[in-house]
Amino acid sequence: MFDSKSLSRMNCLLPFATLILLSAVTEGALKMDLTDDNTFATINHSSILIDHLQDLLYNSNSSDVMLKVYTGNSDEVKVFHAHHLLLILQSDVFEELLLNQSVTTLVLRETAECAALFEKLLRYLYCGEITILLNQAVPLHRLASKYHVGALQQGIIEYMSQQLARASPRGHVVSWYHYSLRIGDENLQERCKQFLAWNMSTVIHSKEWQTTSDDLMIALLQRSDLVVENELEIYYGVEEWIRRNQPDIMVAETVLKSIRYTMISPQHLFYIQKKSSIMNEHYSSIHNLFFLAFQFHSTTPPVFAKYFNVNCSLFIPRNYLSSSWGSQWVINNPVRDDRSTSFQTQLAPNNYDASKKVTWNALFSPRWLPVSVRPSYTYSGYGAARAFSPEDSRPRIIITPSTNSVSFAGVNFQKTILVRVKQDGRSYVKHIYDFHQSTEETGDFLLQADLQKPSSEYLIDKSLHLHIIIKPIYQSLIKAIK
């Protein structure tokens, strides 16, 4: 673990470490795990050792190095009494700073946020454990990164990934995305973007919407998996963002061009065209999209597709929550038995087909057994068949139209299921499943959800909260990239 150079620097401190270990071994109850022949045993006093190390952190009498942590360029200073050995064991940065064993004082400068949390960093170096709050994640990660405490860095990133849904006064997901971009953590970036996209209807009306950077705004609007009431909600959110942030012309026009105007009704398009000051300012660069949208609404999509290229994002619906696109489905006590529901959606998003509706039937089965794990029955002389384990079964949803119709010609329907869960009293979309007829196609529908457990995050007031969305997708759009 250590090279000869490190061992020589640590040699004078080994008696100190030995005293700690001896003290840990001689205190507390003996915990032994014996094998069958009683030959070997495990003596575990690690918790006592951690207690001793924690005591050392607050015992200045035994320290051999002093850390003076200044806040920025000010004279404000915090003094910590530490131990040379423990610092260099946990951080190669401290090892370099303490290369000379005669060093007894280190002067460090940190930002105000980091200086306030420096004691937490020390506690982690001594005990391997700290408590953390949402607003402490970024400054603690900066400290862990600066002093090369890799395990703490990774632990904080994992904490951030798991706390995206946690409620906070001004929101934190956007700021965490911007931070992950600066440190180059692509996994956290994608998790933040996915959370923002799948809960966009909530984010648009939150305080953190206005803190969204130009690049993040453009990246979000290019996605087809945004969950919103309708496309109009996105437009008004973008309009307010432009009004508050005043981006340069190129950014504003790029953002406005990312709106899918074909998914907005002609009545609302006319209103935006005449009443929106933001649209009036940038209309010269957007007017061709408005013209295309009005043409799209004037005929059926298959006819429109004969003259225009519809294989682009402008004609791909997002995850719209309005009743014309689907229905919410709240299933009380979902493990009890099979459930079914019916609802209507529009045949197509264009105004020409506005009066045409499709009725859908949905069936939820809590304990469906996939074909791949169904037992092959072999009969013995007594006629018995091998039973299957309940753990092999899983939930499934099948969605089919109530009747077939020639008016479906040229149209395929993508079904989308949104699954809401609850964390910290806040409901949010955790999963999105896309399929043609059955969730069996996805292979992982609610695979990790423990619907039997009353405290399951998937049960909100003892009910499973789903939202079904039906998206008309035309033949040339089936393979379109999101």
UniProtKB/TrEMBL annotation:
Where does the signal sequence lie? 1-28
Please name the CDD domains in this protein's record.
Answer: BACK_BTBD17
Looking up InterPro entries in the UniProt record yields: BACK (IPR011705), BTB-POZ/Galectin-3-binding (IPR051481), BTB/POZ_dom (IPR000210), SKP1/BTB/POZ_sf (IPR011333), TRAF_BTBD17 (IPR056184)
Segments forming domain BTB: 63-134
The record's keywords, sorted A to Z, are: Signal
Please report the name of this protein according to its UniProt entry: BTB domain-containing protein
What species does this protein belong to?
Scyliorhinus torazame
Q: What is the lineage of its organism?
A: Eukaryota, Metazoa, Chordata, Craniata, Vertebrata
